[in-house]
Structure formats: structure tokens, C-alpha cells
Design brief:
Distance between the termini: 32 Å
Radius of gyration: 17 Å
Helix content: 40-55%
Number of helices: 10
Strand content: 15-25%
CATH topology: Spore Coat Polysaccharide Biosynthesis Protein SpsA, Chain A
Number of strands: 7
């Protein structure tokens, strides 16, 4: 069984496309929406596809690591699949059959990530080149050096390994996804699969521009004390 976990906050423009494709998956699964108190129709749309729409009610700001961890704790699947709200997986039956076969064929595998692309109708030349480089970096980190690396758009993790790793670091406001895979790689094999592709909107670099996006990535990689000077939280882009 697969547990799909999707953090949301005011995602009415994209969430239905994501859920429509996930709900087409014929295998045993559950969809868990971890909502950060959306003020739009996100929850209303999500409830058309799942009865597991859970709202974060605390007053302190919720990091995405907190959102993923909180509801991963109630997941019942053998695999946890963490997705961003603007991610689409076409032909999910074939996609996850392949993913499960690959994880089963590699000894001591604990996690898998796929290639990322912006939807073809939205993709710019910088998108194609930069995400292409990022995909290659993750391929090398996971499959060659075995030290782990992945973005948050898509991570598929064995539940037992996720709980052993302690989950996502809830303090981090950026690169928590990559750091999570680094720790998973210390438990077992992490895999990057170029034959599997997920599609997303590329909305953040499209909104703020690739130069600022690359600078933000660089800042979030700094040590925690230095990073706090420049970036106190991850700005919401919708």
C-alpha cells in the first residue's frame, strides 16, 4: 500500500490536477492532505478525492518538514510518497509498478526519487537546463556516490526507513528534502530513476526569476546561524 502525503496552503489552482491523477492509481493507496489552514477552496477540492484532509491548527508557523512529518505518523502504507501540491504523475499505475519493482530489485533500498520536469506547455529554456542539471546531480549523488539527494517535489520512502531516519528536519526552511535523503542514504540505498518523470509547474522560479531562485537556494545551503540572517522563512508563492 502507498500513502500519498501532500502539504497544502492555498493550492486551489493546482491541487485538483494532482489529486485527479493520483486517484486514478488502481493499487491500494491512501491520500493524506496536510493543510496549513488554507483560506481558499483547497480543502473543499481535496475532500472530493479523500476523507483524510487534516488541518494544522497551531499558531506557530508550520514548516513543510512539520507538515510532512505530522501526517506521515498516521500513514498506514508500506511506502510513503511525498509530493508537492503542483506535481502530476501521468500513468500512475505504470509509474508506481516500476518504482516498486526497482526498489524491490536493489538490496537494502530505502528511498527513490524521479526526474523532474516542468510541464511542457510551461517549460522555459532555463527550466529545461537547470532542472536537467539538478536531475543529473541527484543521479550521481544517489546512484554513484550513494550519499543521497532529492528535491521535495517527489520522494518515495519505505515507511520503516522513514521512521528510523526520524523524518524531515522540522527546523530547516529550505533543503530539508535534500537533507532528508542524505540521512536516508546512511540507512540504506537511495535511488534516482531517470526512466520515471514527474511534472510540476515551476511556479517559484517563474514567479521570482531564476537568478533570485538560484540565490535563494545558495542561501538556504548556508549553516543555520548564517542562514537566519538572510532568510527567516520560505516565502509562499502562488
Amino acid at each position: 500500500m502507498i500513502s500519498f502525503i501532500i502539504p497544502t496552503l492555498n493550492e486551489e489552482s493546482v491541487i485538483e490536477e494532482t489529486l485527479r491523477w493520483l486517484s486514478a492509481y488502481a493499487g491500494e493507496s491512501e491520500i493524506i492532505i496536510s493543510d496549513g489552514k488554507s483560506s481558499d477552496k483547497t480543502r473543499e477540492i481535496a475532500k472530493r478525492y479523500t476523507d483524510k484532509v487534516i488541518v494544522y491548527e497551531e499558531t506557530r508557523r508550520q514548516t513543510i518538514g512539520m507538515a510532512r512529518n505530522m501526517w506521515a505518523s498516521i500513514a498506514t502504507g508500506e511506502y510513503l510518497v511525498f509530493l508537492d501540491a503542483d506535481v502530476t504523475i501521468f500513468e500512475p499505475d505504470m509509474f508506481f509498478a516500476t518504482a516498486i519493482d526497482i526498489m524491490g530489485s536493489i538490496e537494502n533500498s530505502v528511498a527513490l526519487t524521479a526526474y523532474m520536469r516542468v510541464f511542457p506547455e510551461m517549460e522555459t529554456l532555463p527550466d529545461k537546463h537547470i532542472f536537467g542539471v539538478l536531475n543529473y546531480i541527484y543521479l550521481v549523488l544517489n546512484n554513484v556516490f550513494h550519499i543521497g539527494g532529492a528535491s521535495g517535489e517527489f520522494q518515495m520512502v519505505k515507511t520503516e526507513a522513514f521512521r528510523k531516519s526520524g523524518g524531515f528536519d522540522e527546523i530547516l526552511i529550505g533543503w530539508e528534502d535534500h537533507e532528508h535523503f542524505r540521512r536516508l542514504a546512511k540507512i540504506g540505498r537511495t535511488i534516482s530513476v531517470k526512466e520515471l518523470t514527474i511534472y510540476h509547474t515551476g511556479r517559484r522560479p517563474h514567479k521570482i526569476g531564476w537568478p533570485k531562485m538560484l540565490l535563494t537556494w545558495a542561501v538556504t545551503m548556508l549553516p543555520m546561524r548564517i542562514r537566519k540572517i538572510f532568510l527567516k522563512e520560505w516565502t509562499v508563492v502562488r
